[in-house]
Design goal:
The structure holds two protein chains of two kinds. By secondary structure, chain A is of the alpha/beta class. Chain A has 28 helices and 24 strands. In chain A, strands 5, 6, 7, 8, 9 and 10 form a six-stranded mixed sheet that branches. In chain A, about 55% of the residues are buried. Helices cover about 75% and strands about 5% of the residues of chain B. Chain B has a two-stranded antiparallel sheet with strand order 1-2. The chains are: A alpha/beta, B mainly alpha. At the A-B interface, helix 6, helix 7, helix 18 and strand 17 of A face helix 3, helix 6, helix 11, helix 14 and helix 15 of B.
Chain lengths: ~850, ~625
């Protein structure tokens, strides 16, 4: 980050980029994608970033000290791990620090800088400016951006927010502003920040601090404006908006309010209190309580990592099966598929499973039948040039009268209340006592019509996008997919590509539950498209030229796993030949059992679910969560995630990670130049790291960085949620999503030659920043020696695990014993 | 079978359930939700059985013999129950919705801090609801009415550690309290009209009502207007509408039954219940209709511009309640009842599924988006439309109106006493009160005109005490002591007005003294622990001292005459000594009563609710030195 300093401090034109840098970057609800909540601090080492975020914004990045001590008391922070960290950090003073960690009371944190300057209005003028300006400002903005809640939409077409407000002021009898000064400023054609800040603040050195205070009094709305300015396509009903406009309107409202309250008897705030914006930006130094918290956090993290690494150490190399597996199945790297794959491998020990990002290396926009728009179906940073269109016959959009706006009007509302009202009573009774799937549900299976057809083969251009793929393009993608996971020979007759999605009801954050690699949509279309491509004879031919020989008898089949209901749906089964169909029917029985056991494993986390049921009954109860109106936790999504392992399956065979690991298949032997590794890490680190950190911060600071409890959320303009009627938009995750999450950073484990890994990291600054600044921890398994190497200060140093992992004969004995996280086990069977 | 005895059961079951739920520890989620579930379930069942027999027996109006709580030669306080078809509809809708919500919330609130508090409050609300619905006279109805007001406050402030819920809870409470004035004055006037504690059953005797009103058209009109005030405030009618959207701060199911359906329809209930009182008064009927019409028109416009789903449903519901007022004014009782039931179910359901609106409407938009054509013609009509749009965005300034026209003038009056300090308060109070007592004792020597205005003067002083307490920011002790003193002045005012027995004074003041002392002790304890706290902002001490907060809430309730304190009956007693022609005195006494409630709950809220104290910048002078050093730098 660079700040141009003038002799007066920061220039006005530098303030907007600074604000945008710090504001939350969360898109509207329908495009919710996980990201590092503290992305603004990512250029700093992790703990320095936490310190800075706390000093500047009051964000909390640690657990309260007491909780670390409790975790230590419960043995979840291990003594020997803590001891080792203390020795590494403090050398011979380790014992002194141990005393501090365990007994010393913590100094109370000093107040953060944000809000201190602008807070003087309240303190010195006894005037609560926020109370006066915020409700109306939020209403105006929400009305302007609204996507379809209001019946009377914003009445003026305009080029921007300020222009719209000008229009309202000019054309309506009801004034937005009444103070003369505010009105004349509003009418100024080229109104700039300088104009309003001069009136409000008066001292140019304080401008940036003032605006930071002002915008971070409602980071949710400001963040939304900033996001919409850079990606206006996030709104289907697009609205031109700029952060500068929004700030200008807010400043004018403030001037108007101050003028009304005090007339001429107020002076700009910075004249009386010349705060220096540079001081706001200063780097804060660690205190000893920071070091205490940091040490606890490290010990907390390594207490788990140590188990994982000890587990990897204890895996015995398997004798090679030699023969072709019974079938092969590719799943998403998503942590929720971690257990699915484990169960599948126990139910059919001869099958082989793989993990790869769930868009299956095919990137495109998807436009369903009758859809007026297309949505991205690949990781968010990728911009595809392909379009896949769906053709389906009877796709009728079911509707629910309760959402119809007519019930809100006067006369028709009168009729609705007397008729529809009694229907509502029945619906409510039905839905409460016998939940069943309804049109209100967001179902992963409805994303695409399995009976419809897709335009996968090249058909020409449309709106600057290419409809369908050419053969060569298909071959490139399938080759990339297969090489990255090391599946280049020994193909089984059936290769499954299984995407995933989720189902829920009454869930405003539904987009965060689907496949992150498909930009928050279910992965059904990608799985189906990729399978189709891999079955194309033309593609097979090209792949053969590229030394990937897929037997003609091998067939690829796409599918979708609903992670909430644990249901599985396959696409285009009619293409299977007789032999394969037989095999497939056999496999399907295995999948059914896998799904039952998977739902059993998941059910242990659901507190309100009665466990005294048969396995089928449990599965039904789990399914019901997806469409029960009163269920705020349809599934736990990525909660408890902690690991990302990039290796062969054999390296971690038999290890129980309790659904906490993102698993990306990778065979170091197939990738001597690190080409695949670069691709894998470039996706896995930001995606998995982003998910992990969003959970981390939402859990650590549910008030400021998370969205708080979802029970009181109120949907605003279809773009966000707020508390109550006048609140700010909430960013981050609701507490119900993260309550069971242990806030630790992600541990990346990569199986490859350390020198090659170092080369890959150093030549990719984007991912190197994550590792260098320890936003993720990074460990390499050296395949030649089996040694574990930890990345510290841009070097690899050997890591020796301290713990031993327990060996279990039957996993099921343990599964329902506790709701808490389970340790890493080495298991023999289900 | 004696049906009227069943009525007790509908009160007894929620009361028992509420008491049991209080005793269950916080950690026992299942027990708590089961108690609520069975309380509501058994009550629903008994309601159904009861209604079955009631209909079989011809659907007659029922009255349950009164329980006398207090009686002397000129006054009696009775608890009395009454049942007719209005009660029947409200009872069954209430029972169904409460039952559904308790089941719903069992899962929905799982692991939420305050799980116990939620179910306690819902059951308490349910008790208040049934008391109100089944009340056979004003006194009984008023008990229920007060319970409803308090439980609403507690549920709006369910997330009591946040600022906005705490602030909005006070807003809701204040407006409810305005409604209470109406009810108190209506009770007062009706005592004088009937010279007896009239029951709602008596009112069904049309001839008697007509006869009674004949000679007293003024007071009858007054009663009608006061009832309308109470009903309008409770049902968020014009100009009180702005509290409703702000009440949507709690968990969705509580918003759904309270503000979407049950609580907000009780104004309609009050009008239906007291229909015989005002059915012959054209002025009142026109006013009810007019208020309903204005509310319906204004809130449908506001609903149209709402961009948040819950406030939109709130205003849409209000629109319908406005129409119900019109229906009631027109005498269409049955229609209003059907309308109520339908609206209550509809809004409850809409609120409960409100989070689904995102995926639902976005899907609809995705498949059926048509860009809206916007008018750019600058005609007069277009300007009018724009203006209505902006006015509606501003909620027609209703919130500002209430703050500016009702509370601001009262605050200004309170600021007149800004010279008072806690340390010097007694210097003013003891001599002036001594003078007052002297005037009372030697009263017979005073000229008549002086004798007549003295009660008003004393009552005004009492009101001033309350208003000063309402505006006080520096000292909690001062604010609390003033509230305490208000009661003493009020007793003096009434005693000056008419001699009344020592037992009556004792009843009135015993509650004041007991709860006043309790509150004072707690404040002293807090002051010892945290220094002089002041009332500058919301300080959130409930986190540190939940028990103290609870006890202080009890003290507040006792002091303001909530039905846990003998002062509740005392208030009524006191009013019975205000003469029929003393409207000013009655008005001052009622106003003091209202503002006392607001001021006391404000002290509670500022002290215990809201954000964490040590993170709250602005309340202490931590920032100022930094600012000064900056000046030097």
């Amino acid at each position: 980050m660079h700040h141009h300093s003038t002799h007066q401090g920061m220039a006005v034109e530098d303030i907007l980029p600074l604000l945008k840098h710090f504001l939350p970057a969360q898109a509207p609800l329908k495009d919710f994608v996980h990201h590092n909540t503290l992305h603004a601090f990512q250029h700093l080492p992790f703990f320095q970033a936490l310190k800075q975020a706390s000093a500047q914004f009051g964000y909390r990045g640690f657990l309260p000290l007491e909780q670390y001590r409790n975790l230590y008391g419960e043995g979840k922070i291990k003594g020997q791990v803590l001891q080792r960290i203390l020795e590494e950090q403090f050398g011979d003073q380790a014992n002194g620090w141990l005393v501090k960690l365990l007994d010393e009371s913590q100094e109370s944190p000093s107040a953060s800088k944000i809000g201190q300057f602008r807070g003087l209005w309240k303190q010195e003028y006894h005037y609560n400016l926020d109370k006066v300006t915020h409700p109306f400002l939020f209403r105006l903005l929400a009305a302007y951006l609204d996507q379809g809640i209001s019946i009377w939409s914003f009445p003026l077409e305009s080029k921007g927010f300020l222009e719209a407000i000008r229009g309202l002021q000019r054309d309506s009898f009801s004034a937005i502003f009444t103070s003369k000064r505010a009105i004349s400023l509003l009418q100024k054609r080229d109104l700039g920040l300088e104009d309003v800040l001069q009136v409000l603040v008066g001292h140019s050195d304080s401008y940036a601090w003032y605006l930071l205070d002002q915008q971070f009094a409602h980071p949710g709305w400001s963040g939304m404006v900033s996001v919409l300015e850079s990606q206006p396509e996030s709104l289907l009903d697009t609205k031109p908006i700029a952060l500068e406009d929004f700030i200008l309107v807010e400043c004018l409202l403030e001037i108007d309010a101050l003028d009304k309250k005090f007339g001429d008897s107020w002076v700009p705030l910075g004249i009386q209190f010349p705060f220096s914006s540079q001081e706001w930006l200063e780097i804060s130094l660690f205190s000893s309580s920071d070091l205490v918290l940091q040490t606890w956090q490290e010990a907390y993290e390594w207490s788990y990592y140590d188990e994982v690494l000890a587990g990897i150490k204890s895996v015995e190399p398997l004798p090679s099966l030699g023969s072709v597996p019974s079938f092969q199945a590719l799943f998403c790297i998503d942590d929720r598929e971690c257990s699915t794959r484990r169960h599948l491998e126990y139910i059919d020990p001869h099958c082989a499973t793989y993990g790869t990002p769930g868009f299956f290396n095919v990137e495109f926009y998807f436009q369903p039948e009758y859809g007026k728009f297309h949505t991205k179906s690949c990781p968010a940073p990728v911009t595809p040039k392909f379009l896949i269109k769906e053709t389906a016959k009877h796709k009728k959009l079911a509707s629910d009268v309760h959402f119809h706006q007519r019930s809100h009007s006067l006369v028709r509302g009168w009729l609705s209340a007397q008729t529809l009202g009694f229907w509502s009573a029945l619906r409510l009774i039905g839905n409460v006592f016998r939940p069943s799937s309804s049109v209100l549900e967001v179902s992963s299976m409805h994303h695409m019509d399995p009976k419809g057809s897709l335009s996968i083969l090249y058909q020409g251009e449309e709106n600057g996008l290419q409809v369908g793929f050419k053969v060569e393009e298909m071959a490139d993608r399938i080759e990339g997919l297969l090489r990255s996971i090391g599946l280049v020979d020994g193909f089984s007759p059936l290769v499954y590509l299984i995407g995933h999605g989720a189902s829920s009801i009454n869930n405003t954050h539904y987009a965060g539950y689907d496949c992150g690699a498909c930009c928050g949509r279910p992965g059904s279309v990608n799985a189906r498209v990729a399978a189709f491509m891999a079955n194309q004879p033309g593609v097979r031919q090209l792949l053969l030229q590229r030394e990937i020989d897929i037997p003609a008898s091998t067939q690829f089949l796409g599918g979708l796993h609903d992670t909430t209901k644990d249901e599985l749906l396959f696409f285009d089964e009619d293409i299977l030949n007789f032999e394969n169909l037989k095999l497939h029917l056999e496999n399907q029985r295995k999948f059914v059992r896998v799904l039952d056991i998977n739902s059993l494993e998941r059910s242990r986390r659901f507190d309100t679910l009665d466990k005294n049921k048969s396995i089928g009954g449990l599965h039904e109860a789990v399914k019901k969560r997806a469409f029960s109106l009163f269920e705020p936790r349809p599934e736990y999504n990525h909660a408890t995630n902690a690991l990302c392992i990039v290796s062969r399956k054999s390296t971690i065979k038999g290890l129980f990670f309790d659904r906490r690991a993102f698993l990306n298949s990778y065979d170091y032997r197939q990738d001597p130049d690190g080409v695949s590794l670069t691709k894998i890490l470039s996706a896995a680190i930001p995606v998995c790291g982003g998910i992990n950190l969003e959970y981390y911060f939402s859990r650590m600071d549910p008030d400021k960085l998370g969205a708080g409890t979802k029970l009181s959320h109120n949907v605003m303009g279809l773009i966000g949620v707020a508390n109550g009627a006048d609140g700010d938009l909430r960013t981050g995750l609701p507490y119900q999503m993260v309550e069971i999450h242990d806030p630790i950073r992600l541990l990346m484990v990569v199986e490859q030659d350390p020198a090659l890994v170092a080369k890959v990291l150093e030549s990719n600054p984007g991912i190197h920043e994550w590792v260098k600044n320890t936003w993720v921890h990074f460990v390499v398994i050296d395949p030649s020696t089996g040694e574990l190497l930890r990345r510290v200060d841009e070097k690899f140093i050997p890591y020796l695990p301290l713990t031993e992992v327990e060996h279990l004969d039957h996993l099921q004995d343990k599964l329902l014993s506790t709701q808490q996280n389970l340790p890493v086990y080495l298991i023999d069977s289900l | 079978m004696e049906l009227s005895n069943w009525i007790q059961l509908m009160i007894g079951i929620p009361l028992l359930g509420f008491l049991i739920s209080l005793a269950i520890p916080e950690s026992k989620e299942t027990w708590l939700s089961r108690v609520a579930f069975y309380t509501a379930g058994i009550n629903l069942l008994s309601t159904l059985v009861f209604l079955w027999f009631w209909v079989l027996q011809g659907g007659m109006d029922l009255n349950f013999k009164e329980i006398v709580l207090f009686k002397n030669e000129h006054f009696e306080f009775l608890v009395d129950f009454f049942f007719d078809r209005v009660s029947a509809v409200y009872l069954i809708v209430g029972a169904i919705l409460t039952f559904l919500i308790t089941f719903y919330s069992r899962y929905y609130l799982h692991r939420e801090p305050g799980y116990k508090r939620f179910f306690n409050t819902v059951l308490f609300f349910y008790l208040g609801l049934n008391l109100t619905i089944l009340a056979g006279n004003f006194e009984t109805l008023f008990i229920g009415w007060e319970v409803l007001g308090l439980s609403s406050f507690l549920l709006v402030a369910f997330y009591r550690k946040n600022l906005l819920p705490s602030r909005n809870a006070i807003k809701v409470f204040s407006i409810y309290r305005i409604g209470d004035v109406g009810l108190i004055l209506a009770m007062w006037a009706s005592h004088h009209l009937w010279h007896a504690n009239v029951t709602f059953l008596d009112l069904t005797d049309v001839q008697r009502v007509v006869d009674q009103q004949l000679g007293h058209s003024g007071i009858a009109l007054f009663i009608g207007l006061m009832l309308l005030l109470a009903a309008a405030a409770k049902s968020a009618q014009f100009p009180f509408s702005s509290w409703l959207p702000r009440a949507m701060e709690g968990p969705t199911p509580s918003s759904a039954i309270f503000y979407g359906s049950l609580s907000v329809h009780l104004g309609v209930f009050l009008l239906l219940r007291t229909y015989p009182f005002w059915e012959n008064q054209l002025v009142v009927r026109i006013l009810i209709g007019a208020i309903g019409l204005i509310t319906a028109v204004v809130s449908t416009m506001i609903a149209r511009v709402q961009t948040s789903v819950k406030t939109q449903i709130g205003y849409a519901s209000l629109t319908q309640i406005g129409i119900m007022f019109i229906e009631v004014a027109a005498g269409l009782e049955l229609l209003a009842l059907i309308h109520f039931a339908g609206n209550a179910f509809l809004r409850t359901y809409q609120l409960l599924v409100s989070p689904s609106v995102v995926s639902y409407l976005i899907r609809e938009q995705f498949y059926g988006f048509v860009p809206k054509q916007k008018k750019v013609v600058r005609t007069w009509w277009n300007r009018l439309y724009l203006s209505i749009y902006v006015w509606s965005l501003k909620e027609w300034n209703l919130d500002r109106f209430i703050q500016g026209r009702v509370f601001s003038p009262l605050k200004k009056l309170g600021h007149r006493l800004d010279f008072l300090r806690y340390r010097t308060l007694l210097l003013y109070f003891i001599p002036s009160y001594a003078v007052g007592v002297y005037l009372l004792v030697e009263g017979y020597e005073l000229p008549t005109w002086l004798h007549q205005i003295l009660p008003v003067v004393f009552a005004f002083l009492a009101l001033l005490m309350v208003l000063k307490s309402f505006t006080e920011r520096r000292s909690i002790r001062l604010a609390w002591t003033l509230l305490w003193m208000n009661h003493f002045w009020m007793v003096l005012a009434i005693a000056e007005n008419e001699n009344f027995a020592a037992t009556e004074i004792a009843i009135y003041l015993s509650g004041v003294v007991f709860f006043g002392t309790l509150g004072w002790g707690l404040i002293i304890w807090m002051t010892k622990k945290h220094g002089d706290l002041g009332l500058y902002g919301y300080q959130g001490y409930v986190r540190q001292h939940p028990l103290v907060a609870f006890l202080f809430l009890l003290a507040v309730l006792g002091l303001i005459g909530f039905p846990i304190s003998p002062t509740f009956i005392g208030e009524d007693l006191l009013f019975s000594h205000i003469h029929e022609d003393q409207f000013v005195l009655a008005f001052l006494a009622a106003l003091a009563f209202v503002m006392e409630g607001v001021a006391a709950i404000r002290i509670y809220a500022r002290l215990f609710l809201g954000t964490v104290p040590d993170l709250n910048i602005g309340s202490h002078s931590t920032t100022l030195p930094t600012a000064n050093t900056k000046k030097i730098a």
